[in-house]
Amino acid sequence: MILENDNFLMELTKLFQQQRVKNSGSLCLTMKRYDGRTKPQPQLTKKQRLEQKQASTPTIKNPPHSPTTHETGEYRCLVRAVFGSKKLSTIVSAKDINRFQLAYSNLLKLNMDTLKKKAKESKAATTGQTSTNPNSNIPSSPIPTAASSSSTAVSNQQKKTPTTPAKKK
Amino acid sequence: MFIHSWEEFAKQAERLYLNDPNGCRLCLKYRNEKLLIRLTDNRTCLQYKTKYVQDMKKVEKFMSSLLRHMASKEI
């Protein structure tokens, strides 16, 4: 189903919503350069291949598809989306590319939000927590004594820090 | 062929695409909490898989530049 750019984006958001509701299935987006051909180029038959081999020099002079694309001069971009059995596609021409690209990337950003956030930082944070945890566990026993001596939290921390390396040593 | 680092993927993908802009396609597969990006020209296939939002941003940047190039006059 070939749609206009705006309609395509609208339908695509619907697909994302469906996916979210179902919570299953994968959504495929494809993009490729589009030069006006709707059918694939037919493969050469054996005869043709043999002919090409025998007369290799004249075939080089007229490569089959490059002239047509050069005549049009401008390429367009074909974007497809498939979710389950639903298929959408649109063709973006060069003059619409700015608008479409902005809208498209915004849409993807909005809808691909189940991805995990901050991989490296969270990993670093967890490692930092695990490294601090044993330290905090070790001085956990002197904490009540320090608290009973009615000292400030800052002094507690200052007391903890020198004690832990001393214990480690 | 899976490529594990994004930089490597972007580099190779760009080379593959520029080698044959008409025969390449870029696929994005989004499944809950996973994103797979694939660039292929039916001979070699480059794939990159991610779970994280930061990579999503890079993917999106790469994709929009590719989209621009696909719809431009350049060969």
Automatic annotation (TrEMBL), chain A:
It is found in: Cytoplasm. GO terms for biological process: SRP-dependent cotranslational protein targeting to membrane. It comes from Adineta steineri. Residues 130-169 have a biased composition (Low complexity). This is Signal recognition particle 14 kDa protein. One of its GO terms (molecular function) is 7S RNA binding. Heterodimer with SRP9; binds RNA as heterodimer. Component of a signal recognition particle (SRP) complex that consists of a 7SL RNA molecule of 300 nucleotides and six protein subunits: SRP72, SRP68, SRP54, SRP19, SRP14 and SRP9. Residues 34-74, 120-169 are annotated as: Disordered. InterPro entries: Signal_recog_particle_SRP14 (IPR003210), Signal_recog_particle_SRP9/14 (IPR009018).
From TrEMBL, chain B:
InterPro entries: Signal_recog_particle_SRP9/14, SRP9, SRP9-like, SRP9_dom. Residues 3-70 form the SRP9 domain. Gene3D superfamilies: Signal recognition particle alu RNA binding heterodimer, srp9/1 (3.30.720.10). Keywords: Cytoplasm, Ribonucleoprotein, RNA-binding, Signal recognition particle. The keyword Ribonucleoprotein applies. The keyword Cytoplasm applies. GO terms for molecular function: 7S RNA binding. Its main location: cytoplasm. It is found in: Cytoplasm. One of its GO terms (cellular component) is cytosol. GO terms for biological process: negative regulation of translational elongation; SRP-dependent cotranslational protein targeting to membrane. It comes from the Eukaryota. Pfam families: SRP9-21. Belongs to the SRP9 family. Component of the signal recognition particle (SRP) complex, a ribonucleoprotein complex that mediates the cotranslational targeting of secretory and membrane proteins to the endoplasmic reticulum (ER). SRP9 together with SRP14 and the Alu portion of the SRP RNA, constitutes the elongation arrest domain of SRP. The complex of SRP9 and SRP14 is required for SRP RNA binding. This is Signal recognition particle 9 kDa protein. It comes from Adineta steineri.
